Amino acid sequence: MTRAPLVFITGASSGIGQALAARYHAAGYRLALAARRGAEVTAWAQSQGIAAEEFAVYAADVRDVASITGAGRDCIASQGVPDVVIANAGISVGIDTAVLDDLEVMRATYETNNLGMAATFQPFVRAMCERGSGRLVGIASVAGIRGLPGHGAYCSSKAAVISYCESLRGECRPHGVKVVTIAPGYIDTPLTRHNRYGMPFLMAPERFAHKAFDAIAAGASFRTIPWQMGVVSKLLRMLPNALFDAVLAGRPRKRRLGE
Fold first, then answer.
1. CATH code, domain carrying 150
2. Please, is 106 exposed, middle or buried when counting C-beta atoms within 10 Å of its C-beta (0-12, 13-18, 19+)?
C-alpha cells in the first residue's frame, strides 16, 4: 500500500506552523512536527483528532544545530524522507543598536531565522536530490524587502532568508528539488499581536496556510501572501531612499525585548 506523503514543519506549536500542519493534514499528509514545546504539539494534534500513526513530534530547538539536524535524521529513520520540508520557526523582536544587550537579541534572531533554517534543511537536501523530488520551503517576510526602523535584526534576517533560498534553489534545481520562498505579510499570530503600528491586510493564519499550500504545491519560486502586500513591498522597494525615509518618519518602532 502506498504511504501518504509526508511534510516536516518547524515552529509547529503555534501560529503559521500550526495552521500549516492543519492544512497539510486536511490534504492527507502525514505530519512530522518539530518544536521546542513538543508536549504542546502532541496535545494539539490529539485535540484535532489526528491518529497516532499520522503524526510524529520531534522536540528540537532550531538554534541548536545538533538538536534540529538530529530531529531531521530521526524523521528520515522513522517516517521516511519528507515530500515537503517547511522551515517556519522564527522570532521577531525589535532592537536598538545603541543598547549593548540588544546585540544578543540580534544573535538569537540570526541563529533562529537563518542558521536554524539551513540546519532544518540540511538532513534532507541530499536525500531529496538523490530521490529527484521534494519541496524545501523557507518562510521569509515582506519585512525582508526593506529595512524598518527598530526592526534591524528581523528585517535583515528575512532579507537573508530570501537570498539564501534563492541560492539553494539554484543548487537544487538540477536534481528535481524545488525551493519555495514564502513571504508573509501581516498574519494574526502571537508574533504580531503586540505590534504598536498599523498592519494592513492582516490575514488569519488559516487563510494564509491555504494560500501557502497552493503556492508550495505549484512549486512557486517566490510568493508574497497576501498578494496586496506584495504590491506594497514592490512599491516600497521602488521608492528613492529620501522618500522612503520620509514615509517612515515617526513610525512606531518594533517592541524590544521586555517592552
1. 3.40.50.720
2. middle
Instruction: Establish if 155 belongs to a structural domain.
Output: yes
Concerning whether 154 is annotated as a catalytic residue, the answer is yes
Per-residue pLDDT tens digits of the chain, which is 259 residues long: 678 999 999 999 888 999 999 999 999 999 999 999 889 999 999 999 999 999 999 999 999 999 999 999 999 999 999 999 999 999 999 999 999 999 999 999 999 999 999 999 999 999 999 999 999 999 999 999 888 888 999 999 999 999 999 999 999 999 999 999 999 988 887 666 666 556 767 889 999 999 999 999 999 999 999 988 888 888 888 888 888 788 777 676 777 887 6
Q: Is residue 110 part of a domain?
A: yes
Please give the residue range of the domain that contains residue 173: 6-248
pTM above 0.90, yes or no: yes
Number of domains in the chain: 1
Catalytic residue among 24, 29, 58, 154: 154
Q: ∠ CA(233), CA(235), CA(239), 5° rounding?
A: 115
Residue 77 and residue 81: Cα distance in Å, rounded?
Answer: 8
